[in-house]
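Ticket #4471: structure export looks truncated?
Reporter: QA, pipeline team
Priority: medium

Steps to reproduce: submit the single chain below to the structure queue and open the exported record.
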Amino acid sequence: MGPFDKGRRGCSGFRTLSRRHAIQAGVLGGLGLSMGDLFRLEASENSAFTQAAGEKKEAKALSVIQLHLGGGMQQQESLDPKPEAPVEIRGSFGVTKTNTGDILSDRFPQTAKIADKVTVIRSMVGRIPDHALATYHLFTGYTPTAVIDYPQMGSVVSHELGKRGDLPPYIAIPNKHAFAGGTGFLSSAYGPFELGSDPGKRGYKVRDFSIPGNVSLERFDRRLTARQIVEKRIRSLEADPNTLDTMDDFYKQAYTLLTSSQAQGAFSLDAESESTFDLYGRDVVGLKGPDNRYHPKGLAERLIVARRLVEAGVRFVTVTFGAWDCHVDVKSNTLDQMPALDHAIAGLVADLDQRGMLDTTIFWLTTEFGRTPKVNKDGGRDHHARCYSNLVAGGGFTRGQFYGVSGATGAEPSRDAVPLENLMYTIYHQLGIDANKELLAFGTRPIEIVKNGKLVEGILA
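Actual output as written to the record:
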C-alpha cells in the first residue's frame, strides 16, 4: 500500500469513511437462496413509490463508467495547471502539451496523448467543501436534508432503464462509497451490486457469487425444484398471486446470476491479454509504501472489470480509487497516485475507442470538490468547491475539447461555469432520461430527478 492510502492522510471527515457491505448474497442451507431472498425483501422494503410521466428522449449512450476519486483531487497538479502563476499557486510540477495543443500537468503524459478523445471541464462548480455532504451531492444531485433521502444517479438509471442482460444494471467496484447515499425513496432493489472484493488484489473473487463447492449444479437445481413445488402448493391455497409472481422473478434473477457463464465471465480477468493490462498501466507504481517497497495500485484491474461489465450490458458502473485529501504534502500525494491514474484513464479511453464502445459508453472522472489555489503552510491544499475539474468522454460528448476556464489562480470560473447539477442533467440526457421528470417519493411528493438542471450544449457533439 502507498503512503497515501485511505486512513493514512486527510482530514477527519475523510478518514472516517467506512466500507458498506449492503448485499449479502449466496446460497445457504436448506432451500434458501439468500440472494433471491434479498432481492425480494429489498424490493418490498420500500414499495410506496410511483412515478410521474416524463418526456421520452433518444439515448446517445447505453452505459456510464464513473471513476470517483474520493477526498478531492488536486486539479492544479492534473487537469488545470497554472504555469504562469506564482509558485505557491502553481505548485511543484510543470506542464505537458496534449495532442490537441492544450496543456495538462506533466503528471498526465498518457492522458495528454488521448486528449483528442475526451472533454476536460475546468469550470465545475460545487456547493459544499465537506467530504460527506459534497459526495452525497455528487452522487445524488441534491444536498442532504433531514426530510428526504434522495437516490443515487446509478439507482435512478437502474430504475428508469432497467437491465440489458443477465447482470444487475448498477454495480459498484469494489464497494459503494460510504458517503454516496443509497437508493433514497426508491426501492432498495435499485441499489448497486457491490463486488465486495478488489479486482486489483490477490484472491479477487466476487463475494458469494458462485454456488458453494459442496453443492453440485444438479443438487442446486433439485433445491430450486423443491422451492417451486412449495410455491405451487401455496398458490393452491389462494395466496396472493402478485406477491408470488414477484418472488418468482427475484429467484429467477438470483438463479441466473449464479448459473450464467456470461454473468460469471464478465467479472473475470482471465481472458484479458498482457497487452491490455499494460495499456491500463497494471504495473505502474507510485512512491514506496510503509514496507519500503513499490506496489501497483490496482486501478487498472478495476477499470478493466468495469469495461467488461459494460460489454455485458451493465448500465452504470462506479469505480472508486485513491485517497486524495491532501491537506499535507500535495507533492507526495501527487507522485504516489497520479501515475496509475494517468495510465488508467488513457488506457480505458483508448480501449473503449478501439473496441467501438466509446460512442455508446460515457466515461466520467469525478471528485467531490477540488483543492485551494494556494498551497498551505504544510505543503498541501485544502478543500475548494467553487471551481474544480472533471473529465468526460464518449457517449455523444465532444472530443478534444477543454471546456470552461478557471481564473488566473483557479479560485472561480471565469467563463462557462458548469454547476454539478447541469453536468448530471446532461449525462442523464445522453442516456435518454428526462431529468426534469418528477419521481413521486412515498407516492405523493413529486421530486425532479435533477432540480433546476440545464443542458450543457457546449460539451455535446
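Status: closed, not a bug. The export was complete when the record was re-opened. Leaving a note from the reviewer for reference: Confidence is low (pLDDT under 50) at residues 1-8, 17-34, 40-50.
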